[in-house]
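Exercise 7 asks you to align residues with tokens for two separate proteins.
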Amino acid sequence: MLGLLLYLLWLPQLADYDPLLVTGPEPVAIDLLVWDQKRNREIPIRVRLPQASNAPIVLFSHGLGGSRTNNAFLAIHWAKRGYVTVFLQHPGSDESVWRELPPSQRYAAMKDAASAKNLKLRTEDVPAVLDQLAIWNHEATHRLYQAMDLNRIGMSGHSFGAGTSQAVGGQWYPLVRSRWWESRIDAAVMFSPSAPQRGDLKKAFGSVSIPWFLFTGTEDDSPIGGQSAADRLKVFPALPPGDKYECVLFGARHSAFGDRDLPGDSGRNPNHHRILLAFTTAYWDAYLKQNPAALVWLQGPSARALLQSGDTFQFK
């Protein structure tokens, strides 16, 4: 009902709104290093700047064994749409885990890296990066000087990065929630979210107070981490109502949310990336830029028109 009401009220503005429309040159990738002195830890990041200054920020946390170069299709589109994209690389659960090992040893190394210790390190990387961005934003000689609006911040990630985003975005963990939740984050997007294997899901997700958008697929299983496609669907029902979204893509495997297929995958549906770009852009525009036409697009028939048979989309 709310979507229909918004659609009728903002119909004239909606006619000009298209989350897939991009203009201008491709943003240049800027590779930087964040030094967290307190933890003696170096965090590589890749930044892409939009043409406008003082722009909202969208952070991205890669999956297990990934890097700051992952999901470039999202970074480029979001930057062209007016966002400073900051893609993190998490030492200890990044590509260094497997890259120098023979293929026979990579699975075991990856499984070991999918640990609570690395989740903690990842969640602590987020405030460390935000603190450094704030410093650079005020340094007149830095390339990021006055580039960012640190009052408008989105968080996103895939797989282990989705778990990272959930942790800093308000998921409750026994004894650690106050340490992991990052209050500067205004909205979050999770590609391949995860549900706790034990405990009360309502308790884990019932205190989430910011907008969340969950993306998964009907075949979104992961060989590491014990998450099945069915497990990922348990998150949305446990979230409290109010600016919570879920899109389930028919036939989408775990790799559908990344740049390329994993070994053994095939038959990628090109419309899935089109949906990811359109839905996430409208979501960021609605909740970081406060664009009413974007919210109307997202909650109205225009978004659903991109879906194909078997795809589902809901919000509450």
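Second protein for Exercise 7:
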Amino acid sequence: MKEYDIFIPLFLNDGSPIGLRVLRVLQDRLLKQFGGLTFFPQPNEGLWRMGDVTYHDQIVIFRVLASKVRVARRFLAALKEELKRDLDQEEILIIERDIETL
């Protein structure tokens, strides 16, 4: 089984907030695709460097579990490209981990 964390920025590059509707639509899509999810709504700070510049971002995290890895990867790869385009982001971080459940 795999676990996926999807890091979503809370602000667009121009500083305007991403609306709650965007997060709700994403939540609904993930719930429909994976049958369940965990949403970490508390803002987290992301930092990264490019050259001499340090960038800051506030993000929230959605977590899903999948037993059908190929299907999950296909869905998440397409979702990632949509989010990059719709949220005007250079990158959307999605992390995949192997997990076991009890």
